[in-house]
From TrEMBL:
It is an enzyme of class 3 (hydrolase). It catalyses: Hydrolyzes the link between N-acetylmuramoyl residues and L-amino acid residues in certain cell-wall glycopeptides. Its EC number is 3.5.1.28. The keyword Cell wall biogenesis/degradation applies. Residues 82-227 form the N-acetylmuramoyl-L-alanine amidase domain. This is N-acetylmuramoyl-L-alanine amidase. Keywords: Cell wall biogenesis/degradation, Hydrolase.
């Protein structure tokens, strides 16, 4: 082989090796970039997914399910001393119904207010669930942790905040339907009866939820409807077990 030809082949082989190394570097950069993008998407938009997974894990750990539950979004608050202290809820002896006292606000508005308390330090308040004017439901705190909602009963109750359109505090039909379904499901899930469902008023004397303090007969009807819903959930669970 001539010296010039050998030199040309060496140069060609060198160029090929350089080209392959460059290709490998590009592949590594692409893989790293994809991983970084995925991580960013999880960090920015994955909170809801992570929250839903967390709550589902808690249910599965107790051999429970979402059978009989109304649709709801799980948007858990960050753990902080002002709205989600992360303190375990050792037992659940009741469910406390509240109203927001903020006419026209949505479930998301109220959830985001609770979340913002970690920065504003304005007060300490939260709720396990918020039911919106259109019947939407947002879960803010796992059922295994306390919420800052019901004063002396924080340690053994779940709390549900309800939105309302005006100063009367009366719930829309959509809010009422979702509240009955949610309360009935929670009662069944934690072996409670409709008599274990109370108003914030029954704990502290605060006029909350206003409409049900002003209209005790409407409150009794609500508890009756919850009792019927518990039976509906039980039937759905039994039907599911028989499949």
């Amino acid at each position: 082989m001539k010296k010039q030809e050998y030199k040309e082949r060496c140069e060609k082989a060198k160029a090929e090796r350089k080209k392959r190394r460059k290709k490998v570097r590009i592949q590594k950069i692409t893989i790293f970039g994809a991983a970084l993008l995925t991580a960013c998407l999880i960090a920015v938009g994955g909170n809801r997914i992570g929250a839903a997974i967390e709550e589902r894990r808690l249910l599965e750990a107790r051999n429970e399910s979402f059978v009989g539950a109304p649709p709801f979004d799980v948007e858990l608050l960050d753990v902080n001393e002002y709205s989600r202290p992360g303190i375990p809820l050792e037992q659940i002896n009741g469910i406390v119904i509240h109203y927001t006292a903020n006419p026209g606000s949505t479930a998301q508005n109220n959830r985001d207010y609770f979340e913002g308390l970690k920065d504003s330090h304005e007060t300490k308040v939260s709720s396990h669930f918020v039911v919106g004017i259109e019947g939407e439901i947002v879960q803010c705190i796992p059922s295994s942790e306390i919420a800052y909602a019901s004063n002396s009963r924080n340690s053994d109750t779940l709390s549900i905040e309800c939105c309302h359109p005006d100063e009367t505090g009366k719930f829309t039909d959509a809010t009422y339907t979702s509240l009955v379904r949610l309360t009935g499901w929670l009662c069944y899930r934690f072996n409670l009866t409709s008599e274990d469902v109370i108003r914030h008023y029954d704990v502290t004397g605060k006029i909350c939820p206003k409409y049900y303090v002003d209209h005790p007969e409407a409150w009794e009807q609500f508890k009756t409807d919850v009792g019927e819903q518990i039976k509906v959930v039980e039937q759905e669970v039994l039907a599911g077990e028989g499949e």
